[in-house]
Amino acid sequence: MALTIYLSCLLALSVASLAHGIKRSLKNQDPGPQPLELKQVFVLFQIQYNRSYSNPEEYARRLDIFAHNLAQAQQLEEEDLGTAEFGVTPFSDLTEEEFGQFYGHQRMAGEAPSVGRKVGSEEWGEPVPPTCDWRKLPGIISPIKQQGNCSCCWAMAAAGNIEALWGIRYHQPVEVSVQELLDCGRCGDGCKGGFTWDAFITVLNNSGLASAKDYPFLGNTKPHRCLAKKYKKVAWIQDFIMLQGNEQAIAWYLATKGPITVTINMKLLQHYQRGVIQAMHTTCDPQRVDHSVLLVGFGKSKSVAGRQAEGGSSRPRPHHPIPYWILKNSWGAEWGEEGYFRLHRGNNTCGITKYPVTARVDLRVKKRLVSCPP
């Protein structure tokens, strides 16, 4: 752990002094020799994230991609309207296409199926609390998962949704089997991608899910390998619904009912390190959603001062608090804010309102409210 922290700090310091020069070189399209500092930073990246390459040609290719990504991260940080910081991440040696292939949905989204009612304004008439963070209540949010090269964010988000709702309703922590969703889904090879409603349909068809301990995650799938009947079910759902595409309604449902799944444009997440992303729609198209995550809370950032730009001049930065969403990702705890990230709340950032979907684990008590930790 100490070595990881040391390497992270060393990488951050090295990148800070290097990124501007790389960006300027790439803008000028100068293919000259790579600076020694870049190669040193790349070695630190390889050590921290356990990367190795099969031959010198592949090493050189990954080094060029790494340099390009550092320059792009610096540009994103300059353009972002919030407090987000972008830089070296576990994905800094991947092209944008590779990143999308490994970690996005892969298959294009059609229209979502008819999944029951949408929450209307008449249901969220009560005031929405200023903050909410379900992570603060023990037994609700399961640990951060690592999907690896299996495109199963949709299954992990759906599993997290069921786990949270089960914990809220029955005061009992549970971790359900993501592998069962992959092996037994209607879409065949679950590592090729999917959407959260695919997972919920599988849960309904199987009358529940086994535990993650009994049916552990393998990161791959094989045809006709479904073992759903072999294990005891530890959680189940009655149905699932699509919420209204309104951030106030989403906040109310999140605060009073529990975490929900959302599907967003993940483009900026490849280079994200920490802070609140407040991107323009031209930078993060809200219509091109390709990554499912679990929405676990919301709040407001503290007032922030302008950051110092190159040459000592200050870039315009918000001095007022920024409202944000808290989202649980499935790329491991080394990524982002210990596996989580924050998006600006109030402007449909990265398409967060397009597919807000949640399971329901209990319909017997209508309009039952729960208390969200502030």
UniProtKB/TrEMBL annotation:
- Classify the source by domain of life: Eukaryota
- Sequence ranges assigned to domain Peptidase C1A papain C-terminal in this UniProt record: 128-360
Domain Cathepsin propeptide inhibitor positions? 42-99
Kindly give the Pfam families that the UniProt entry links to this protein. Answer: Inhibitor_I29, Peptidase_C1
Gene Ontology cellular component annotations, sorted alphabetically: endoplasmic reticulum; intracellular organelle lumen
Against SUPFAM superfamilies, the record matches this protein to:
Cysteine proteinases
Under the GO molecular function aspect, what terms does this record hold? cysteine-type peptidase activity
Q: Which UniProt keywords apply?
A: Disulfide bond, Endoplasmic reticulum, Glycoprotein, Hydrolase, Protease, Signal, Thiol protease, Zymogen
Predominant subcellular localization, coarse grouping? endoplasmic reticulum
Q: Which residues cross the membrane?
A: none
What subcellular locations does the record give? Endoplasmic reticulum
InterPro entries in the record, alphabetically?
A: Papain-like_cys_pep_sf, Pept_asp_AS, Pept_his_AS, Peptidase_C1A, Peptidase_C1A_C, Peptidase_C1A_papain-like, Prot_inhib_I29
Q: Name one GO biological process term.
A: proteolysis
What is the residue range of the signal peptide feature?
1-19
Q: Tell me its family.
A: Belongs to the peptidase C1 family.
The function of this protein is:
May have a specific function in the mechanism or regulation of T-cell cytolytic activity.
The protein's name is Cathepsin W
The lineage is: Eukaryota, Metazoa, Chordata, Craniata, Vertebrata
